[in-house]
Write a structure and sequence with these properties.
Elements: H1 3-19, E1 49-60, E2 63-74, E3 78-82, H2 89-96, E4 104-109, E5 113-114, H3 120-125, E6 128-131, H4 143-151, H5 157-161, H6 167-179, H7 195-208, E7 213-217, H8 225-238, E8 243-247, H9 251-258, E9 267-271, E10 274-279, H10 281-286, H11 288-295
Parallel strand pairs: 3-8, 3-9, 6-7, 7-8
Antiparallel strand pairs: 1-2, 1-4, 4-5, 9-10
Helix pairs in contact: 1-6, 4-6, 4-7, 6-7
């Protein structure tokens, strides 16, 4: 972000702070009651889980890509998913995002939102973001402009044409540039970034839309060791404020995310469309079936 934009953001932020000096915000200081009734279609994670998959089955020409898959992800959790090629990892994410409709089973976002009743764009709008393995950024635009465009993603064509960043939005972009390690390259054309930096930029673009659940498909493929380490730091910083499902083959990266099992994070192993094993990384690595079908000896 340029110094001029930072200064403009600071001035507006100060004005907003004076105006909202009572600190009540839009809710008027009221707190939500845990005894309140949650409306249908509103994300409810009071029972702990943000994603429920129950007996999901998907078949392609007789081949079961998913075979009665059941999985639960807690709100704020960082879950790593591993498994051999063809295990069903991509199909699982396709079901969650509405790209693929299962033959059987249930999929819920929180306890109130039935994902199988929604289209892809509707699922994206309720707070589920997906990052594919290959980065998809607007290479002709600058890093800053890519993040700015992400803010406009839910606006119509006409409103986007007249959209102007306010101070709060400038601050959000500035904070995101720091988070994704691209603050010094804000005005750099995205096409000139390294592969790893493009991955970070796309993650930043997703985060600008404030998703509650992030699905990340092999996010460190093709990265340098330093970029991989920084990506692990980024994901760990997001844990808690976001829920993350990370599909990855790089076991060193999985080890960094889970601190080799010391932080209690679960690792789920998929094989032939269902859960083969689940638990701490050390337990998964010691599982004879996992060693046989995936890790090798």
């Amino acid at each position: 972000m340029t110094p001029e934009l930072m200064e403009a953001g600071a001035r507006v932020r100060e004005a907003m702070a004076r105006k909202q000096g009572d600190g009540t915000g839009q809710s008027g200081g009221r707190r939500a009651s845990y005894g309140s009734v949650v409306q249908e279609g509103v994300l409810d994670t009071r029972h702990g889980a943000i994603l429920y998959l129950d007996d999901i089955t998907v078949s392609f020409d007789g081949f079961k890509a998913l075979n009665a898959l059941s999985l639960s992800i807690s709100a704020g959790e960082l879950r790593c998913i591993i498994g051999p090629n063809g295990a069903g990892k991509t199909t699982m994410m396709d079901v969650i995002t509405g790209k693929t409709r299962p033959d059987a089973g249930k999929a819920h976002f929180g306890s109130t939102i039935d994902l199988l009743r929604l289209r892809e764009n509707e699922i994206a709008s309720i707070g589920i973001g997906r990052k594919f393995q290959k980065p998809t950024v607007f290479e002709q635009l600058t890093v800053f402009e890519n993040l700015e465009l992400a803010l406009k993603a839910d606006r119509g064509v006409r409103s986007s044409m007249f959209f102007r960043l306010n101070g709060e939005q400038l601050d959000r972009i500035g904070a995101m540039l720091s988070l994704i390690h691209l603050k010094d390259g804000a005005q750099r054309v995205a096409g000139l970034l390294s592969h790893g930096q493009k991955q970070w930029l796309e993650i930043g673009m997703l985060l600008m839309q404030d998703p509650k659940l992030l699905l990340l498909d092999e996010p460190v493929a093709g990265m340098t060791d330093e970029e991989t380490e920084r990506t692990a730091e980024l994901f760990l910083s997001l844990e808690g404020s976001h829920s993350l499902v990370v599909v990855e083959h790089d076991m060193k990266f999985i080890g960094e995310l889970t601190q080799n099992g010391r932080n209690g994070k679960k690792v789920t192993v998929l094989h032939e469309g269902s859960v083969l094993a689940e638990g701490l990384l050390s337990d998964v690595q010691a599982n004879e079936k996992v060693v046989e079908v995936y890790l090798g000896r």
